[in-house]
Amino acid sequence: MQAYMKSAMPFLGVPAVPRQGALRAVFAEIDWPDIAAWQADVLTLWRQAAFREERYAAIALTGVAAARPFQTIAALPLYEAMIVDGAWWDYIDELAGHRLWGLLRNDRLAMTAAMRDWANDADLWKRRSAILCQLPAKAATDLDLLYACIEPSLESREFFLRKAIGWALRQYARTDPAEVTRYITANADRISALSRREALKHVA
User: Fold this and answer.
1) What is the rounded CA–CA span in Å between residue 115 and residue 18?
2) Is 0.85 surpassed by the pTM of this model?
3) Left if phi > 0, otherwise alpha if psi is -120 to 50, otherwise beta: which for 72?
4) How many CB atoms lie under 10 A from the CB of residue 174?
5) N or C, which end of the chain has less CB nearby within 10 Å?
6) For 103-124, what is each residue's pLDDT tens digit?
7) What is the pLDDT of residues 45-99, one digit of tens each?
């Protein structure tokens, strides 16, 4: 697992299914009086982690039912810290595709502005997160935001950005394949072959 993830941090070697089951049992009764207490627990677990699964546990802790009231723009600095510090796809994709989407649903205007800023950030992982923040959105996808987040990275040679662009477009193609095909055609001279291939993977 450590070799596959190219991780400097060691793994305990616990696969996802038993890990998730164990965490559900541990987190079942947990509660916090306020957002500050929740963030403190998440960051303590994240920063004191000696094994990668402990960081996965910190990410899981951000998504428990008791944390739902805290999923507002006020939680963005927490997720930003984890994304910048984690700086690898296994952390970022869970946080971007689930937690950032939750914030976007709950605080649309503030998060839209923040994701537009992140899309232009020097940090690769913040840019990837902005591109992926609407993965579960389906028909609720804000196309203006999606394209605005893709645009600054459209001609990038960075693999993780090209892959993210293709993934985000592929997800939306499940809802509107014609629009994704139109977008790919309109940007044919700018979009990478990798992004195009990923975007059109399930388009007939």
Assistant:
1) 34
2) yes
3) beta
4) 11
5) C
6) 999 999 999 999 999 999 999 9
7) 999 999 999 999 999 999 999 999 999 999 999 999 999 999 999 999 999 999 9
In terms of C-beta density within 10 A (0-12 exposed, 13-18 middle, 19 or more buried), how is residue 139 classed?
exposed
Cα distance between residue 155 and residue 193, in whole Å: 11
CA distance 71 to 63: 9
> How far is 188 from 196, CA to CA, in rounded Å?
8
- 197 Cβ contact list (under 8 Å, min separation 6): 166
14-44: pLDDT as tens digits: 888 999 999 999 999 899 999 999 999 999 9
pLDDT value, residue 1: 82
In 10 A of CB 183, how many CB atoms?
20
The overall average pLDDT reported for the chain is: 96
How far apart are alpha carbons 73 and 199 in whole angstroms?
29
Q: Which residue do the tokens 């696969």 mark?
A: 15
Q: What angle do CA 122, 39, 22 make, to 5 degrees?
A: 105
- Angle CA 94–96–101, to nearest 5: 110
- C-alpha–C-alpha distance, residues 204 and 137, integer Å: 22
3-state secondary structure of 85: helix
Single-letter residue type at 53? E
